[in-house]
Amino acid sequence: GPDRKDNNKYPDVYFANSFVGNYLRLELLSRYKQQQKLLNESIDFFDYMAVKTGTLWENIGTYASCNHGFASHIVHLLYRDVLGISDIDYRNRKIVFRIPDIELEKCEGIIPVGDDIIKLSWSKTDGIIDINYSLPEGFTSVIENNSKCKIR
Predict the structure, then answer these.
(1) Is-contact 135 118, C-beta < 8 A?
(2) Residue 16: what pLDDT?
(3) Which helix (H) or strand (E) holds 64?
(4) Nearest alpha-carbon partner for 99 in 118, 120, 119, 117
(5) Mean pLDDT of 53-81
(6) CB count, 10 Å around CB of 82?
(7) CA-wise closest residue to 103 among 121, 80, 129
(8) How far apart are CA 61 and CA 79, in angstroms?
(9) Taking the CB of the first residue and of the last residue of the chain, which one, N or C, has fewer CB atoms within 10 A?
């Protein structure tokens, strides 16, 4: 994780770099449904980059590309695992919204689909999640609630 250099838990294992090691870690956290940890570590992995240069980097330091295209993969992870636009099946025109069990109070995002958009927003109040979404014409959706809250 992002604090590995501080605790040096595995001194015989080389430290991961941003590309591709940290992304693989985030994908593993996703696979094992650790969305809160994914969100926390995403901030730890990338916030200092955005603060310093307004971009995301190829490496964990400024010694190479400080504006790396693959870094945009974090957006895919956050939309899928934090916002909850989990799966878009363009062929069958079906979208799965998978609402995560995370500490955020609200989240929203938009994904372009041709000339249209998929829009999802949710907010939590007193153990209830209010969900609003819009879909391109002809698309259907399924909502899976992985949170501890009830959906309204």
Answers:
(1) yes
(2) 82
(3) none
(4) 120
(5) 90
(6) 19
(7) 129
(8) 26
(9) C
pLDDT in tens, 6-59: 778 888 887 788 888 899 999 999 999 999 999 999 999 999 999 999 999 888
> At a CB cut-off of 8 Å and minimum separation 6, what does 144 contact?
86, 96, 97, 98, 99
CB of 108 closer than 8 Å to CB of 130: no
- Kindly tell me if the per-residue pLDDT of 107 is higher than 80: yes
| Of 56, 80, 60, 59, nearest in space to 69 by CA | 56
Question: In b/e form, how buried is each residue of 114-131, taking b as 16+ CB within 10 angstroms?
Answer: eeeebebebebeeeebee
d(CA 13, CA 1) in angstroms, rounded, equals 13
